[in-house]
């Protein structure tokens, strides 16, 4: 199942949100994000009022993609952890289960060691959650309740006519 076929269920979303909130508190971070590899924000914890979350999510996914290209040039499969240090704020980015990107923004109230430790623990939980989502999606799909996409009968022409 490709990541674009992933269906988010309320129960699993609650688990994701709970895990993000826990990580936010445990790392003393400013904000924590979970982003898919296409750059879509899945969930966040912390104060996002001063952050353009859409741009941050998109740029983070781009950063992972660009770093993936560098990794392949060096003969690596992928670099799963990135860290950027700024004057006031730092950003820790980790790829989780080849599916989602976990972003932790923190300042001097925390440390890289603490963030890395807590992210490692949280990553295990996120891998489990996304594995459960995939299993649930496959069960629903195999039960034939989704024989066809609800958008299957919509053509490109219909979309063009809608926006004219």
Brief characterization of the structure:
This protein has 164 residues and is of the alpha+beta class.
Q: Mind explaining what this structure looks like?
A:
This protein is α+β, with helices and mostly antiparallel strands and 164 residues long. The protein has a single domain (3-162), classed as Beta-Lactamase. Helices cover 47% and strands 19% of the residues. It contains 4 helices and 5 strands, in the order αββαβββαα. The chain has helices spanning 10-27, 53-73, 112-142, 156-162, and strands at 31-36, 41-46, 81-85, 90-96, 100-106. Helix 1 packs antiparallel against helix 3. The chain is globular, with a radius of gyration of 18 Å. It starts with 9 loop residues before the first helix and ends with a helix. The model has no long low-confidence stretch (mean pLDDT 87).
List the helices and strands and how they pair.
Layout: H1 10-27, E1 31-36, E2 41-46, H2 53-73, E3 81-85, E4 90-96, E5 100-106, H3 112-142, H4 156-162
Antiparallel strand pairs: 1-2, 1-5, 3-4, 4-5
Helix pairs in contact: 1-3
**CATH class wording:** Alpha Beta
CATH topology: Beta-Lactamase
Number of helices: 4
Low-confidence stretches: none
């Amino acid at each position: 199942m490709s990541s674009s076929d992933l269906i988010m269920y309320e129960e699993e979303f609650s688990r994701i949100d709970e895990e993000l909130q826990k990580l936010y508190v445990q790392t003393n971070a400013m904000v924590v994000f979970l982003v898919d590899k296409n750059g879509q924000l899945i969930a966040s914890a912390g104060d996002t009022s001063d952050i353009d979350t859409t741009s941050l999510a998109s740029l983070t996914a781009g950063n992972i993609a660009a770093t993936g290209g560098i990794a392949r040039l060096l003969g690596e499969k992928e670099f799963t952890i990135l860290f950027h240090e700024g004057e006031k704020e730092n950003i820790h980015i980790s790829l989780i289960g080849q599916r989602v990107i976990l972003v932790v923004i923190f300042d001097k109230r925390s440390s890289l060691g603490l963030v890395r430790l807590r992210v490692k623990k949280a990553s295990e939980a996120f891998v489990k959650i996304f594995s459960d989502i995939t299993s649930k999606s496959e069960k629903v799909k195999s039960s034939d309740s989704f024989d066809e996409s609800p958008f299957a009968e919509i053509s490109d022409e219909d979309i063009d006519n809608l926006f004219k």
